[in-house]
Amino acid sequence: MLRTVLLRTVATVFAVIFPLGLFIVLARAAQPKRLLEAGG
């Protein structure tokens, strides 16, 4: 039972943190491009 709860907790945390991390990486990658387009 403990293993099931642990797996469920890890899955929930991963499901919350992974999209946030991915969004942050995409936002950081898109920022310089936007600045270059605005400047040029």
UniProtKB/TrEMBL annotation:
- Enumerate the transmembrane spans: 6-27
Protein name in the entry: Uncharacterized protein
Keywords from the named record: Membrane, Transmembrane, Transmembrane helix
The species this protein belongs to is Mycolicibacterium senegalense
This protein's record includes keyword Membrane: yes
